[in-house]
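Late entry, NAP complex.
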Amino acid sequence: MKIVFIGGGTIAKAIYKGLPKEHEYVVVKRNLHDEFWTGKADLQPAGTSVEGDVYILAVKPLSFEKAVEPFRNRRQTFISVMASINTEMLVKHLDNENMVRCMPNLSVCIGEGYIPYCQTSDKAEEDFTALFGTLGHLERTEEEYMDALTALTGTSPLYISVFIDALLDAGIKIGLPREMVRKAAVQCTIGGARYLECEKIHPMELKDMVSSPAGTSIHALHNLEKSGVKAAIIEAVEIAYYRAKELKRIKEI
Ligand SMILES: NC(=O)c1ccc[n+]([C@@H]2O[C@H](COP(=O)([O-])OP(=O)(O)OC[C@H]3O[C@@H](n4cnc5c(N)ncnc54)[C@H](OP(=O)(O)O)[C@@H]3O)[C@@H](O)[C@H]2O)c1
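Prediction complete; structure with ligand written out below:
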């Protein structure tokens, strides 16, 4: 199958890493001096009209209209990973009914993504699930949830990275060796998430399990609550959600 990436930046590279290598790949982008793609894909300059079996749209929302201009009025499936651009806008600007809007995150490169999607035709969904199945968990949903899922899941590697970075700083501050802290922080984050998933318990049930009277955990938790950590995370996701909506309005003007 011939896969055409329109945009070959951060998320396109992560998706490529998670996809089977038996396909033929073409990448359309502005700067053709990009070491990552050398030997992996045929690089074509932005604005080139390239034929393919499936197209993956991975440009910034504000570059979208210009980038898709050479690809209007085709019948093949287009998979958009762009924030904010909804399926109605995709169908209108590409003049094509076979659209999937999805929201991957960087974990797709190791097959651990969580990818909510909605689609405009059965053909588009079939092509999408056949191709993106190796990238992680595909979750069919409704268009109305996509901006909220963008804020929650598309940005999730960032939230986790900030948390791990804070653990790193904390470990160093209390005197642990850097390499030991790094391994401990990453493994404890993975282990904590897997534990919640396997045991199917609510996160706050875990709080009761680990907080012994007058112990270290309840003291730590008190400080987290005082610092407003949960409120800061809630507000970060909420602000990302409003930004997704704002970008759509900017495009519609
Ligand atoms: N990064 C993430 O974690 C993530 C996750 C989920 C969804 N997304 C979505 O994915 C999209 C891309 O994000 P990104 O982080 O990958 O951005 P990025 O690294 O800036 O990549 C954007 C790509 O678009 C190319 N481009 C710009 N104008 C073009 C045009 N007219 N024709 C063809 N290609 C053009 C750029 O080419 P050059 O490289 O030559 O400049 C670049 O390769 C965004 O809409 C974002 O919402 C990103």
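The mean pLDDT is 95. Will revisit in the morning.
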